[in-house]
Specification:
The chain contains five helices and four strands, in the order αααββααββ. By secondary structure, it is an alpha+beta fold. It has one domain. It has a four-stranded antiparallel sheet with strand order 1-2-4-3, with helices on one face. Strand 1 and strand 2 form a beta hairpin. Helix 1 runs antiparallel to helix 2 and helix 2 runs parallel beside helix 5. The longest helix has 30 residues. It is globular.
Length: about 160
């Protein structure tokens, strides 16, 4: 059997289950490479490389999702909302988007990758880079995230806006 046809032979339910497996595998890979660098080079080096990897990965992920959704060059906050829903780890977490005073507020209610947020600065790099790749005008501000938790009802919360 041609292995490239394996996905086509699966039911919708199997494909959704496989998406969950892929998401968990991705999360595991993110963790094990970090631990490997930490073991060999120390925490500072692991955090440095983690931040660099997220800086690059988030742009690649955003670009591919933007192309998949066929978003225009500047899709605005509505385009960002659609793209955030399709992030790879979206299958692992529970989040919501709300609009408040012209800003898109993204709240991660349950986050299995919270450990990555706790590594200094990774969350800001990740969300800012993702949003800018969707629409270069979008700015990101952290409302609540380790180590500055201001909302203990969620794991993290971010505000996206387009300056006038």
């Amino acid at each position: 059997m041609d292995t490239r046809g394996a996905l086509e032979a699966m039911s919708r339910e199997q494909l959704i289950e496989l998406l969950d497996i892929y998401a968990r595998n991705w999360l595991a890979m993110d963790g094990v490479w970090f631990q490997s660098v930490e073991e060999k080079e120390g925490m500072d080096a692991a955090m440095f490389h983690d931040a660099r990897a997220w800086e690059r990965f988030t742009v690649i992920e955003a670009r591919r999702i933007k192309q998949f959704l066929r978003l225009p060059e500047h899709p605005g906050l509505e385009g960002l909302e659609k793209a955030l829903a399709l992030r790879f780890y979206g299958r692992l977490n529970r989040s919501r988007c709300d609009y408040v005073d012209g800003k898109l507020i993204y709240t991660m209610e349950v986050c299995r990758v919270q450990a990555a947020r706790e590594r200094k600065g990774v969350g800001v790099i990740e969300y800012s880079g993702f949003a800018r790749e969707i629409d270069s005008r979008i700015q990101c501000a952290c409302l609540s995230c380790y180590p500055e938790v201001t909302d203990d009802t969620c794991c993290c919360k971010w505000a996206f806006s387009i300056p006038e």
